[in-house]
Write a structure and sequence with these properties.
The complex is a heterodimer. By secondary structure, chain A is mainly beta. Chain A contains no helices and twelve strands. Chain B contains no helices and eleven strands.
């Protein structure tokens, strides 16, 4: 069985502060993929990043960065200099190979509120 | 631009009604998924399909069924709607090959009264 834990249910920060969203996962698979999605108030999930289990390099995309640490089974997401538009629910997800196809298992999400 | 379209944004149904939620994708994806989203529970997989007429149960299939007669369309059916099925329903699709990201529809907020 696999599990994705996002222990932070809600986070509020003042605009321009940095914020890190935590994600811890469990899997017995040796090859797996991790994802982050953003769900703005409109409701549609927006893909942010995909990382495979063999690539532990950190990634930066503008104000977003991701820290993947296999040793601690974590895939954390940091927003630098937060903006009001970053307010959303963020989901971490883990892939599973089932019946020859992918299945994504999501965490419970972290609601991020950026205070102007 | 990739597109997953769910037929309704908001839906109100009565207890005991048969409810159809429709999802269409225009990306020729093999895999399609139905999730429900509830506060504090995240997204939970109801059913998925990896080919036409093929389906597999997810984590919470009870009370639901699905239909995939055409590649682009994946329907979720509530045989006899109950109030505990009030939720946000999200459809997603992804290619069959390669472990790429899934693309999501805008969601259907279903209220059963």
């Amino acid at each position: 069985a696999q599990k994705v834990t996002q222990a932070q249910t809600e986070i509020s920060v003042v605009e321009k502060e940095d914020v890190t969203l935590d994600c811890v996962y469990e899997t017995r698979d040796t090859t797996y993929y991790l994802f982050w999605y953003k769900q703005p108030p409109s409701g549609e999930l927006v893909f942010l990043i995909r990382r495979n289990s063999f690539d532990e390099q950190n990634e930066i995309s503008g104000r977003y960065s991701w820290n993947f640490q296999k040793s601690t089974s974590s895939f954390n997401f940091t927003i630098t200099a937060s903006q009001v538009v970053d307010s959303a629910v963020y989901f971490c997800a883990l892939s599973e190979y089932l019946f020859g196809n992918e299945k994504l298992t999501f965490g419970t999400g972290t609601r991020l509120t950026i205070i102007p | 631009d990739v597109k997953v379209t769910q037929s309704s944004r908001y839906l109100v149904k009565r207890t005991g009604e048969k409810v159809f939620l429709e999802c269409v994708q225009d990306m020729d994806h093999e895999n399609m998924f139905w999730y429900r989203q509830d506060p504090g529970l995240g997204l939970r997989l109801i059913y998925f399909s990896y080919d036409v007429k093929m389906k597999e149960k997810g984590d919470i299939p009870e009370g639901y069924s699905v239909s995939r007669e055409k590649k682009e369309r994946f329907s979720l059916i509530l045989e006899s709607a109950s109030t505990n099925q009030t939720s946000m329903y999200l459809c997603a699709s992804r290619p069959g090959q390669g472990r790429t990201e899934a693309f999501f529809g805008q969601g259907t907020r279903l209220t059963v009264v």
